[in-house]
């Protein structure tokens, strides 16, 4: 199946710093990627939809100025957590689907990034 | 928007028994319902999915049923094995609201299969 690579897998940072997470589709093009966050023993909560070449669409309650999303190419979306605070500590995971998929398209997940803010 | 509820939150079975996880959804326009298995600290893995034009789908020991009228769908695992132990998530998407792959997830079910 298709591969989605996410980096870094784990990051520890000081409060107030910014952290960038990359999501790459390695063997296919993805016009749309999704960013989720997952707290321990909880579900995946959709944060935003990342669209190549346009602004991201954020879910209600997600601060767009805090979670900056850039989808500059068909294979790369980045999520930057700005001025991180301990409450931002979470597992962040991206997903991507094939361009022009249709009814048989599948969603592929990255391996996730565990962010710990001290 | 869509809301997906999942039950039970935890499920413990003996090896060889069957396990059933149930989900309900709120948006009647949703028509794609995948199930994911997630092991600790790893990415969710798609194990089976169903679209609204069918009522049941089976893949070896795993089956999914869908009742569109009642807006609920279920995952059935037969002959459970210890390696089935993981967290299982159901999800739903409305193709007219963000596309097939804008998934809204249930809260998850932690399945433990005891030898």
3D architecture notes:
The complex is a heterodimer of chains A (118) and B (115). Chain A is an all-beta fold and 118 residues long. The mean pLDDT of chain A is 89. Helices cover 0% and strands 52% of the residues of chain A. The radius of gyration of chain A is 14 Å and the shape is globular. Chain B is mainly β. In chain B, 0% of the residues lie in helices and 53% in strands. Chain B has no helices and 11 strands. In chain B, the strands form 2 sheets. In chain B, strands 2, 4, 5, 9, 10 and 11 form a 6-stranded mixed beta sheet that branches. In chain B, strands 1-3-8-7-6 form a 5-stranded antiparallel beta sheet, with no helix packed on it. In chain B, a hairpin with a 2-residue loop joins strand 6 and strand 7. At the A-B interface, strand 5 and strand 9 of A face strand 5 and strand 10 of B.
The structural class of chain A is mainly beta
Helix/strand class of chain B: mainly beta
Which chains have the largest interface?
A-B, 24 and 21 residues
* Main sheet summary of chain A: 7 strands, mixed
Beta content of chain B: over 45%
Whole-number mean pLDDT of chain A? 89
Please describe the topology of this protein:
The complex is a heterodimer of chains A (118) and B (115).
Chain A: E1 4-7, E2 10-13, E3 19-25, E4 32-38, E5 44-51, E6 57-58, E7 67-73, E8 76-81, E9 90-97, E10 107-109, E11 113-117
Parallel strand pairs in A: 2-11
Antiparallel strand pairs in A: 1-3, 3-8, 4-5, 4-9, 5-6, 7-8, 9-10, 9-11
Chain B: E1 4-7, E2 10-14, E3 19-25, E4 32-38, E5 45-51, E6 56-59, E7 62-67, E8 72-77, E9 86-92, E10 104-105, E11 109-114
Parallel strand pairs in B: 2-11
Antiparallel strand pairs in B: 1-3, 3-8, 4-5, 4-9, 6-7, 7-8, 9-10, 9-11
Characterize this entry briefly.
The complex is a heterodimer of chains A (118) and B (115). Chain A is mostly beta strands and 118 residues long. Chain A is built from no helices and 11 strands.
């Amino acid at each position: 199946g298709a591969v989605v690579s996410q980096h870094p897998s784990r990051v520890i940072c000081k409060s107030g710093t910014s952290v960038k997470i990359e999501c790459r589709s390695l063997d296919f093009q993805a016009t749309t990627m999704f960013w989720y966050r997952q707290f321990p023993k909880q579900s995946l909560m959709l944060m935003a939809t990342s669209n190549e070449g346009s602004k991201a669409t954020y879910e209600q309650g997600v601060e767009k100025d805090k979670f900056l999303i850039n989808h500059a190419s068909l294979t790369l979306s980045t999520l930057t957590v700005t001025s991180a605070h301990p409450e931002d500590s979470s597992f962040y995971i991206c997903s991507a689907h094939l361009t022009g998929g249709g009814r048989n398209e599948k969603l592929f997940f990255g391996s996730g990034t565990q962010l710990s803010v001290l | 928007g869509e809301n997906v509820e999942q039950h039970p939150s935890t499920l413990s079975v003996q090896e060889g028994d069957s396990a059933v996880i149930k989900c309900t959804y709120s948006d009647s326009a949703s028509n794609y319902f995948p199930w994911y298995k997630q092991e600790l600290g790893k990415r969710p893995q798609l194990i089976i999915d169903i679209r609204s034009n069918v009522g049941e789908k089976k893949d070896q020991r795993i089956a999914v049923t869908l009742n569109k009228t009642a807006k609920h769908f279920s995952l059935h695992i037969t002959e459970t094995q210890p390696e089935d132990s993981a967290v299982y998530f159901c999800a739903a998407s409305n193709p007219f609201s963000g596309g097939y792959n804008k998934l809204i997830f249930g809260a998850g079910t932690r399945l433990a299969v005891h030898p």
